[in-house]
């Protein structure tokens, strides 16, 4: 059976002429609007709109469907209003992009307390910047600034990229090698250890190695796991090394579950930014999320 919300979304697109306009009128995200439309088109078996730039032009079959469902939907909306509490308001939906590890470490613990709906999206930073510019995302947390004139970037914190290891790693031996034999021998010492990496992002390891040894690492990690938080959990087993942002493992270092091995000859730091469009429909909701990030990362 067809989902009634698909028809409501179809009607909103028809009347506003854009996916963004429909999303605003329904107080849902643009990805949600796109999903409803594609599901309805798959259900009926034909295109309902031709996409011209950002405008949605109804096809002939789309016009026929609109004429068929418009009046019944209007009657249902009137019934809904009559039975709805007069003080009840639509709850806005905010779409936020960030890396998976950042979400787990910061915002995840507060999701159930938010006074609005939330959609979390994970992806690469260039992709998230593009989706923010197009209106698909409302806010992103990123270490990289974009160039779009429509986006504001606000620095709010920084992360230091550090070398950490399991509690059984012999840090004294590494420090003695670095102090008495120099950086080249220290590199060889590190390469003899077991290493952890992730399937999608080796950038931290590359940056750290280039900054301290002048070249990319000429070895591959022994263990590839899904994400950086998985690495932290694996290191609690006692052995192994990894290069990770400090905020992901601050508590584990303080508790002694893992060790800070080396900050490097020079500290590798990234500035973290909030990115949002200059003209946003959800300034108070975005400020609420920003406040939670500042609270966690202060």
Report on this structure.
By secondary structure, this protein is α/β, with parallel strands linked by helices. It folds into three domains: 4-85, Winged helix-like DNA-binding domain superfamily/Winged helix DNA-binding domain (Arc Repressor Mutant, subunit A), CATH 1.10.10; 93-158 and 270-297, D-Maltodextrin-Binding Protein, domain 2; 160-269, Periplasmic binding protein-like II (D-Maltodextrin-Binding Protein, domain 2). The chain has helices spanning 4-16, 19-26, 30-44, 60-83, 100-107, 125-134, 171-181, 183-191, 203-213, 228-235, 250-255, 283-297; strands at residues 49-52, 55-58, 93-97, 117-121, 139-142, 151-166, 196-198, 223-225, 241-245, 258-262, 268-277. The strands form three sheets. Strands 3, 4, 5, 6, 9, 10 and 11 form a seven-stranded mixed beta sheet that branches. The chain has a two-stranded antiparallel ribbon with strand order 1-2. It is elongated. It starts with a helix and ends with a helix.
Topology:
Elements: H1 4-16, H2 19-26, H3 30-44, E1 49-52, E2 55-58, H4 60-83, E3 93-97, H5 100-107, E4 117-121, H6 125-134, E5 139-142, E6 151-166, H7 171-181, H8 183-191, E7 196-198, H9 203-213, E8 223-225, H10 228-235, E9 241-245, H11 250-255, E10 258-262, E11 268-277, H12 283-297
Parallel strand pairs: 3-4, 3-5, 7-8
Antiparallel strand pairs: 1-2, 5-11, 6-9, 6-10, 6-11
């Amino acid at each position: 059976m067809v989902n009634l919300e698909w028809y409501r979304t179809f009607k909103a697109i028809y009347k506003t002429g854009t996916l963004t306009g429909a999303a605003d009128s329904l107080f849902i995200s643009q990805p949600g609007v796109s999903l409803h439309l594609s599901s309805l088109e798959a259900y009926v078996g034909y295109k309902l709109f031709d996409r011209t730039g950002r405008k949605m032009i109804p096809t002939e079959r789309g016009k026929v469907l609109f004429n068929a469902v418009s009046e019944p939907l209007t009657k249902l909306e009137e019934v809904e209003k009559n039975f709805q509490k007069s003080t009840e308001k639509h709850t806005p939906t905010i779409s936020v992009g960030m890396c998976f590890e950042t979400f787990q470490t910061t915002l995840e613990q507060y999701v159930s307390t938010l006074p609005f709906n939330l959609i979390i999206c994970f992806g690469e930073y260039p992709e998230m910047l593009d989706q923010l510019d197009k209106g698909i995302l409302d806010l992103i947390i990123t270490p990289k600034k974009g160039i779009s004139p429509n986006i504001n970037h606000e620095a709010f914190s920084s992360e230091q990229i550090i070398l950490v290891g399991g509690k059984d790693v012999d840090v004294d031996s590494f420090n003695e090698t670095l102090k008495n034999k120099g950086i080249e021998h220290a590199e060889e010492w590190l390469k003899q250890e077991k290493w952890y990496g992730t399937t999608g992002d080796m950038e931290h390891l590359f940056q750290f190695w280039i900054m301290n040894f002048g070249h990319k690492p000429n070895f591959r990690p022994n263990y590839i796991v899904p994400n950086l938080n998985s690495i932290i959990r694996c290191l609690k087993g006692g052995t192994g090394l990894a290069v990770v942002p400090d905020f992901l493992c601050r508590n584990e270092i303080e508790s002694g579950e893992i060790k800070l091995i080396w900050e490097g000859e020079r500290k590798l730091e990234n500035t973290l930014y909030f990115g949002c469009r200059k003209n946003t429909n959800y300034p108070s909701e975005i400020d609420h999320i920003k406040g939670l990030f500042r609270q966690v990362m202060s």
